[in-house]
């Protein structure tokens, strides 16, 4: 990790990430994605004892932040790379984003989706023109299916998180949030899974304000599988970590070598939340902000409300905190959805 003037430059295994790369990504992303608003809410801020600034990626195209990385990756490709379309794997939000970004570029998108993906996300992938292949539930199942499509179609792989183009696309969230909060922020809370979003936000935010704290919010899962927390505690990526069983289906991936390197060096801490806290946070956002947020998107709110957050980052020392509401693709397939989600996590 080195600094060049006001531009933080990250190097890891031959990959370089700089603030200039993020600004270049914004030139691409801004042509198709939205600049999402920042909301405040006095009730939720009061519960935390500090002022919260919610980055509303729930209002982004496809309903999540993922379109940013997909757009940057796909529109950065050469015509030769793009001629046979793209392929990726995802539990839903990255899949939707890749399908739409490919459609905007006019190329086919082949999407590998685990068989237990939420129906609302599968329907959206099809709606954006994605060609779906279902696979098993492990990361190896996903990768094997992607590799098969690559061999057969010659398609270019669009990484869900562990690639420079994806990270820089997600980093535009950080640029916007820093610009939209004119008095500055003391910290930003970001849900973590594969680490692409928090890596990008950390690079952008700390390039602009090296003193800002970046806090990962992670579900423990009913099987205690918070791999980001365990990796930070160990100082090394826990490659054998199991996938968490959690309502936050979009936060079940494990970090890659590149995203882990950024998290290791630039993320200040990981706050782990329980399933019941996620459900409560969803309900709170719905009732007080009148906004639908999916479980993965509510994890940051749950972390901001937690006793762990208050203890590690006291409100008097960190009075202004950004929270990324990263997705709003909730599955309303049952009438009593709050009760249904509660039953699901209790049954694991």
In short:
Its EC number is 4.3.1.18, 5.1.1.18. The protein is α/β, with parallel strands linked by helices and 348 residues long.
Describe the structure.
With 348 residues, this protein is α/β, with parallel strands linked by helices. The chain folds into two domains: 2-64 and 163-347, Rossmann fold; 66-157, Rossmann fold. The protein has helices at residues 19-29, 42-48, 66-75, 79-82, 93-105, 119-127, 139-153, 164-180, 196-208, 227-234, 257-266, 275-289, 295-305, 307-312, 337-347; strands at residues 2-4, 7-12, 15-18, 38-39, 51-56, 86-89, 109-114, 131-135, 156-157, 187-191, 213-219, 269-273, 320-325. The protein has a six-stranded mixed beta sheet, with helices on both faces. It has a four-stranded parallel beta sheet with strand order 8-7-6-9, with helices on both faces. The chain has a three-stranded antiparallel beta sheet with strand order 1-2-3. The longest helix is centred in the middle third of the chain and has 17 residues, at 164-180. It starts with a strand and ends with a helix. Residues 1-6 have low confidence and may be disordered. It comes from Chloropicon roscoffensis. Catalyzes the synthesis of D-serine from L-serine. Has dehydratase activity towards both L-serine and D-serine. Keywords: Lyase, Magnesium, Pyridoxal phosphate. This is Serine racemase.
